[in-house]
Protein backbone atom coordinates (compact mmCIF):
# COMPACT_ATOMS: atom_id res chain seq x y z
CA UNK A 1 0.00 0.00 0.00
CA UNK A 2 1.42 3.37 -1.01
CA UNK A 3 1.62 6.39 1.29
CA UNK A 4 -1.24 8.04 -0.58
CA UNK A 5 -3.42 4.95 -0.23
CA UNK A 6 -2.62 4.79 3.50
CA UNK A 7 -3.60 8.45 3.84
CA UNK A 8 -6.99 7.95 2.15
CA UNK A 9 -7.60 4.80 4.21
CA UNK A 10 -7.18 6.73 7.46
CA UNK A 11 -10.23 8.11 9.35
CA UNK A 12 -11.36 11.20 7.39
CA UNK A 13 -11.68 13.77 10.17
CA UNK A 14 -8.47 12.79 11.97
CA UNK A 15 -6.41 12.68 8.78
CA UNK A 16 -7.75 16.07 7.65
CA UNK A 17 -6.97 17.72 10.99
CA UNK A 18 -3.47 16.22 11.18
CA UNK A 19 -2.57 16.97 7.56
CA UNK A 20 -3.90 20.54 7.81
CA UNK A 21 -1.99 21.17 11.04
CA UNK A 22 1.24 19.79 9.59
CA UNK A 23 1.07 21.73 6.31
CA UNK A 24 -0.08 25.00 7.88
CA UNK A 25 2.53 24.84 10.65
CA UNK A 26 5.34 24.16 8.16
CA UNK A 27 4.11 27.07 6.06
CA UNK A 28 4.03 29.41 9.06
CA UNK A 29 7.41 28.46 10.54
CA UNK A 30 9.13 28.71 7.14
CA UNK A 31 7.56 32.18 6.66
CA UNK A 32 5.55 31.13 3.60
CA UNK A 33 2.48 32.35 5.50
CA UNK A 34 2.90 35.24 7.98
CA UNK A 35 2.28 34.14 11.56
CA UNK A 36 0.00 37.09 12.32
CA UNK A 37 -2.40 35.99 9.55
CA UNK A 38 -3.39 32.80 11.37
CA UNK A 39 -3.54 33.88 15.01
CA UNK A 40 -6.91 34.37 16.67
CA UNK A 41 -7.65 37.95 17.67
CA UNK A 42 -11.10 39.38 18.35
CA UNK A 43 -10.24 42.74 16.78
CA UNK A 44 -9.75 41.08 13.37
CA UNK A 45 -13.46 40.24 13.30
CA UNK A 46 -14.35 43.92 13.51
CA UNK A 47 -12.84 44.73 10.12
CA UNK A 48 -14.54 44.45 6.75
CA UNK A 49 -14.47 41.77 5.54
CA UNK A 50 -14.04 39.93 8.88
CA UNK A 51 -11.11 37.50 8.93
CA UNK A 52 -13.17 34.43 9.80
CA UNK A 53 -10.47 31.94 8.78
CA UNK A 54 -8.65 32.71 12.03
CA UNK A 55 -11.26 30.66 13.90
CA UNK A 56 -10.00 27.54 12.12
CA UNK A 57 -6.29 28.28 11.69
CA UNK A 58 -5.86 29.02 15.40
CA UNK A 59 -6.60 25.32 16.07
CA UNK A 60 -4.06 24.12 13.49
CA UNK A 61 -0.77 25.77 14.53
CA UNK A 62 1.51 23.32 16.31
CA UNK A 63 4.57 24.08 18.41
CA UNK A 64 7.92 24.81 16.73
CA UNK A 65 10.58 22.30 15.72
CA UNK A 66 9.76 18.89 17.26
CA UNK A 67 6.41 20.31 18.31
CA UNK A 68 5.32 20.02 14.67
CA UNK A 69 5.92 16.27 14.79
CA UNK A 70 4.59 15.57 18.28
CA UNK A 71 1.47 17.77 18.06
CA UNK A 72 0.56 16.34 14.65
CA UNK A 73 1.14 12.81 15.94
CA UNK A 74 -1.02 13.28 19.04
CA UNK A 75 -3.71 15.06 17.05
CA UNK A 76 -3.96 12.15 14.64
CA UNK A 77 -3.48 9.33 17.18
CA UNK A 78 -6.09 10.45 19.68
CA UNK A 79 -8.39 11.84 16.98
CA UNK A 80 -8.45 8.63 14.94
CA UNK A 81 -9.00 6.56 18.08
CA UNK A 82 -12.04 8.63 19.02
CA UNK A 83 -13.35 8.64 15.46
CA UNK A 84 -13.16 4.88 14.94
CA UNK A 85 -12.96 3.12 18.31
CA UNK A 86 -14.77 5.16 20.95
CA UNK A 87 -18.12 3.88 22.29
CA UNK A 88 -19.14 7.52 22.77
CA UNK A 89 -19.35 8.27 19.06
CA UNK A 90 -21.38 5.52 17.43
CA UNK A 91 -23.80 7.56 15.29
CA UNK A 92 -22.92 9.48 12.11
CA UNK A 93 -21.76 12.99 12.95
CA UNK A 94 -21.21 12.38 16.69
CA UNK A 95 -17.45 12.94 16.53
CA UNK A 96 -17.91 16.01 14.32
CA UNK A 97 -20.30 17.55 16.86
CA UNK A 98 -17.86 16.73 19.64
CA UNK A 99 -15.15 18.72 17.83
CA UNK A 100 -17.52 21.64 17.23
CA UNK A 101 -18.54 21.75 20.90
CA UNK A 102 -15.00 21.40 22.24
CA UNK A 103 -13.58 24.03 19.88
CA UNK A 104 -16.39 26.48 20.68
CA UNK A 105 -15.80 26.02 24.43
CA UNK A 106 -12.03 26.43 24.08
CA UNK A 107 -12.56 29.57 22.01
CA UNK A 108 -14.94 31.08 24.54
CA UNK A 109 -12.69 30.33 27.52
CA UNK A 110 -9.70 31.88 25.78
CA UNK A 111 -11.61 34.99 24.75
CA UNK A 112 -12.97 35.70 28.23
CA UNK A 113 -10.33 34.14 30.52
CA UNK A 114 -6.85 33.53 29.11
CA UNK A 115 -6.55 35.77 26.06
CA UNK A 116 -4.81 32.99 24.10
CA UNK A 117 -4.41 33.15 20.33
CA UNK A 118 -3.34 29.58 19.37
CA UNK A 119 -5.42 26.65 20.60
CA UNK A 120 -3.95 23.52 19.00
CA UNK A 121 -2.48 22.28 22.28
CA UNK A 122 -5.89 22.69 23.93
CA UNK A 123 -7.56 20.63 21.19
CA UNK A 124 -4.92 17.90 21.52
CA UNK A 125 -5.45 17.78 25.28
CA UNK A 126 -9.23 17.58 24.80
CA UNK A 127 -8.77 14.60 22.47
CA UNK A 128 -6.38 12.97 24.94
CA UNK A 129 -8.75 13.45 27.89
CA UNK A 130 -11.77 11.97 26.11
CA UNK A 131 -9.75 9.11 24.64
CA UNK A 132 -8.16 8.22 27.97
CA UNK A 133 -11.53 8.22 29.73
CA UNK A 134 -12.45 5.27 27.51
CA UNK A 135 -9.33 3.48 28.81
CA UNK A 136 -9.98 4.17 32.49
CA UNK A 137 -8.55 1.40 34.66
CA UNK A 138 -5.84 0.48 32.14
CA UNK A 139 -2.15 1.39 32.08
CA UNK A 140 -0.58 3.60 29.42
CA UNK A 141 2.95 4.69 28.59
CA UNK A 142 3.71 8.40 28.53
CA UNK A 143 7.13 8.65 26.87
CA UNK A 144 9.08 6.31 29.20
CA UNK A 145 6.76 6.30 32.23
CA UNK A 146 3.85 3.88 32.69
CA UNK A 147 0.90 5.47 34.50
CA UNK A 148 -2.89 4.94 34.69
CA UNK A 149 -4.44 5.90 31.37
CA UNK A 150 -6.70 8.57 32.87
CA UNK A 151 -3.64 10.45 34.15
CA UNK A 152 -2.17 10.98 30.68
CA UNK A 153 -3.88 14.38 30.06
CA UNK A 154 -2.65 15.71 33.39
CA UNK A 155 0.90 14.51 32.64
CA UNK A 156 0.72 16.36 29.30
CA UNK A 157 -0.47 19.51 31.06
CA UNK A 158 2.32 19.24 33.66
CA UNK A 159 4.92 18.86 30.93
CA UNK A 160 3.62 21.98 29.20
CA UNK A 161 3.77 23.88 32.51
CA UNK A 162 7.38 22.84 33.10
CA UNK A 163 8.66 23.33 29.54
CA UNK A 164 6.58 26.28 28.26
CA UNK A 165 5.42 28.08 31.39
CA UNK A 166 2.13 28.80 33.17
CA UNK A 167 0.58 30.89 30.38
CA UNK A 168 0.92 28.09 27.83
CA UNK A 169 -0.42 25.60 30.39
CA UNK A 170 -3.38 27.88 31.07
CA UNK A 171 -4.33 27.92 27.39
CA UNK A 172 -3.86 24.18 27.08
CA UNK A 173 -5.93 23.61 30.21
CA UNK A 174 -8.99 25.06 28.47
CA UNK A 175 -9.04 21.89 26.38
CA UNK A 176 -9.28 19.80 29.53
CA UNK A 177 -12.22 21.89 30.75
CA UNK A 178 -13.97 21.67 27.37
CA UNK A 179 -13.60 17.88 27.13
CA UNK A 180 -14.77 17.37 30.73
CA UNK A 181 -17.79 19.62 30.11
CA UNK A 182 -18.72 17.58 27.06
CA UNK A 183 -18.34 14.37 29.07
CA UNK A 184 -20.59 15.78 31.80
CA UNK A 185 -23.32 17.00 29.45
CA UNK A 186 -23.42 13.90 27.24
CA UNK A 187 -22.58 11.02 29.62
CA UNK A 188 -22.43 11.86 33.32
CA UNK A 189 -25.59 13.96 33.52
CA UNK A 190 -27.79 11.53 31.52
CA UNK A 191 -26.36 8.48 33.31
CA UNK A 192 -26.19 9.64 36.93
CA UNK A 193 -28.29 12.81 36.99
CA UNK A 194 -31.37 11.41 35.33
CA UNK A 195 -31.29 14.05 32.61
CA UNK A 196 -30.90 13.84 28.86
CA UNK A 197 -27.98 14.34 26.50
CA UNK A 198 -27.59 18.12 26.30
CA UNK A 199 -25.32 18.05 23.24
CA UNK A 200 -27.25 15.87 20.76
CA UNK A 201 -26.21 15.46 17.14
CA UNK A 202 -28.71 17.31 14.92
CA UNK A 203 -30.45 15.34 12.17
CA UNK A 204 -28.91 17.42 9.37
CA UNK A 205 -25.41 16.67 10.72
CA UNK A 206 -26.20 12.95 10.79
CA UNK A 207 -27.29 13.16 7.16
CA UNK A 208 -24.03 14.89 6.27
CA UNK A 209 -22.02 11.95 7.62
CA UNK A 210 -24.23 9.11 6.47
CA UNK A 211 -22.61 6.34 4.46
CA UNK A 212 -24.20 4.43 1.62
CA UNK A 213 -22.00 1.37 2.15
CA UNK A 214 -22.08 -1.18 4.96
CA UNK A 215 -18.86 -1.33 6.96
CA UNK A 216 -17.41 -3.58 9.64
CA UNK A 217 -14.90 -2.08 12.09
CA UNK A 218 -13.03 -3.67 14.97
CA UNK A 219 -13.32 -1.71 18.20
CA UNK A 220 -11.88 -2.16 21.66
CA UNK A 221 -15.27 -3.23 23.01
CA UNK A 222 -16.16 -5.55 20.10
CA UNK A 223 -16.97 -5.38 16.39
CA UNK A 224 -19.10 -2.52 15.09
CA UNK A 225 -21.26 -3.17 12.04
CA UNK A 226 -22.57 -0.08 10.29
CA UNK A 227 -25.34 -0.85 7.81
CA UNK A 228 -25.85 1.18 4.67
CA UNK A 229 -27.77 4.34 5.53
CA UNK A 230 -30.14 5.33 2.76
CA UNK A 231 -32.31 8.35 2.26
CA UNK A 232 -35.79 8.21 3.68
CA UNK A 233 -37.70 7.49 0.49
CA UNK A 234 -38.90 4.47 -1.43
CA UNK A 235 -38.29 3.68 -5.07
CA UNK A 236 -41.82 4.84 -5.90
CA UNK A 237 -41.13 8.26 -4.43
CA UNK A 238 -43.39 7.80 -1.41
CA UNK A 239 -41.73 9.15 1.77
CA UNK A 240 -40.84 6.64 4.47
CA UNK A 241 -42.92 8.64 6.92
CA UNK A 242 -46.09 8.48 4.78
CA UNK A 243 -49.70 8.13 5.83
CA UNK A 244 -49.76 4.34 6.27
CA UNK A 245 -47.82 2.59 9.02
CA UNK A 246 -44.60 0.90 7.90
CA UNK A 247 -46.00 -2.56 8.71
CA UNK A 248 -48.87 -2.07 6.20
CA UNK A 249 -46.69 -1.34 3.19
CA UNK A 250 -45.79 -4.94 2.38
CA UNK A 251 -49.32 -6.37 2.42
CA UNK A 252 -49.73 -6.58 -1.38
CA UNK A 253 -51.87 -4.56 -3.72
CA UNK A 254 -55.18 -5.44 -1.97
CA UNK A 255 -58.65 -5.99 -3.49
CA UNK A 256 -62.00 -4.23 -3.17
CA UNK A 257 -64.47 -6.08 -0.99
CA UNK A 258 -66.99 -7.98 -3.08
CA UNK A 259 -64.79 -7.77 -6.15
CA UNK A 260 -63.36 -10.57 -8.30
UniProtKB/TrEMBL annotation:
GO cellular component: endoplasmic reticulum membrane
Superkingdom field: Eukaryota
Matches recorded under InterPro entries: DER1, Rhomboid-like_sf
Known function: May be involved in the degradation of misfolded endoplasmic reticulum (ER) luminal proteins.
Pfam families the record matches: DER1
Secretion signal span: none
Transmembrane segment boundaries: 20-40, 52-76, 96-129, 141-164
Subcellular location: Endoplasmic reticulum membrane
Region of interest (Disordered), residue spans: 228-260
Species assigned in the record: Phialocephala subalpina
GO biological process: one example: response to stress
Mode of membrane association: Multi-pass membrane protein
Chief location of this protein within or outside the cell: endoplasmic reticulum
Family: Belongs to the derlin family.
Keyword Membrane belongs to the record: yes
Identification of the protein by name: Derlin
Keywords, ordered alphabetically: Endoplasmic reticulum, Membrane, Transmembrane, Transmembrane helix
Extent of Polar residues compositional bias: 228-237
PANTHER family: DER1-LIKE PROTEIN, DERLIN
